[in-house]
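Protein folds are increasingly written down as discrete tokens. With that in mind, we are printing a sequence and the tokens encoding its fold.
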Amino acid sequence: RIRGNGATPLPESVSRALRETRELVAAGRVPEAYAAVDRYPPDVRVVVRPFVTHFSGAKTVIGTARATMEFLRTITQGSDVLVAGQIALDGEAYGIRSTIGVPFVVGNQGVDRVFELPLSDEERESLCDSAARVQQKNARFL
């Protein structure tokens, strides 16, 4: 359990939230679906919000292109940007030598620094295991 001893198990909470938001989106009540998502605990929101975004039609190629252009403009003007993204690590964070998602700062000279967030032993082990699996899959293609 991620959510503590007295909490509803995460899969049950997500199922309930998906049912509620699916009904709202299907009825064309997208703002209400997003408002419902905002009331959920963080671990449920992270699963349900992408569902609402995907099925509400709120995603666009133009939006992605604009975000990319703003990112590039910021970097080329000499500013740094904090990114939570995929990066090839060579031991800079958690001793991982693989591609995995971690926060890092990037600027016009490339990646400036990688951050290690405080993780429990279990979270760190899970992250490192995931990175090892990514490395194994990548090795087939490289």
